[in-house]
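Notes to self, TAXI family TRAP transporter solute-binding subunit:
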Amino acid sequence: MPPARRAVLGAGLAAPLLGTPALTACGGRSWDDLPDARLTIATGNPGGVFHRYGEALAEVFAERLGLGVRTRGTNASIDNVREVSQRVSDIGFTLADVAADARRGRGEFREPVDIVAMARAYDSFVHLVVRADSGIRSLEDLRGRRVSLGATGSGTRGIAWRVVRAAGLADEDIEQIAETLQESADAIAQDTLDAFFFVSGLPNTAVLRLSEQVPIRLVPLGTMAPRLARDHGAEFSRSSIPASTYGLERAVDTVSVQNHVLVRPDLDDDLVYALTRVMFEEQPAIEELAPGLRQPNVGTAIYTSPLPLHPGALRYYREQR
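result:
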């Protein structure tokens, strides 16, 4: 085990081993003894991975734990952080750079926000989508173009601006459009928009469906990764979107950013322990509901810095040593 992981998991005593999986939660409480909770999961845009994952988790949590669970569609990261911190929703998904901004009181957040994590999830990839016959082949080519930077309240919008400015473009250099993912995809299909940004896990359903309507390309962004990491944090790294994801001619060099599953810090420890356990133990059921979605890995799920882990989630991870 890496030293950093031992340090995170080693604080305090490990919890006892599990009893009968279907009946007993850690510490002797059965699933039937969990608080009679009704949970709300803040997800994201229809067609995005946050939305698909949230819908699948809601169904599995409800079936496995006998809880009332509903989802709320949002514009994703910034909205979700606000919803969880304000107790409008109990669970949510966010890009790690938004979480870092919220925790530190910067960017869209004027003061630090009280949020904690249940897990680090899959990574998201920055998509800059254009039609295949477009003359846009680099960020510089966005000058004078109609570009959707993502909906207000979305993590996509914040990252899109960071990418654009890292490339040396100013606000007035592009015609800015604020549209949802589906609105942007529809506009590309109708040839009324030149390009759109979206930050998502793979594959993104809306982008995949768009690729089946009209030929598309993804503009390479990977050279922006070092500057983004230097200016905004280690949450950013250089990555690649495989060609097979959207039927492209070749893999696309781009930027990726970590994601976190948020949870209200005041939720019952045993409830969060149970939610965390189900999130990992029921991954085959989640795969059936959301095929192809990359799910959290228990070996890396604890790496949620700068967000602390909820005590209930941490208890589960200690058992996995």
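- Confidence is low (pLDDT under 50) at residues 1-28.
- Residues 101 and 107 are 6 Å apart (CA to CA).
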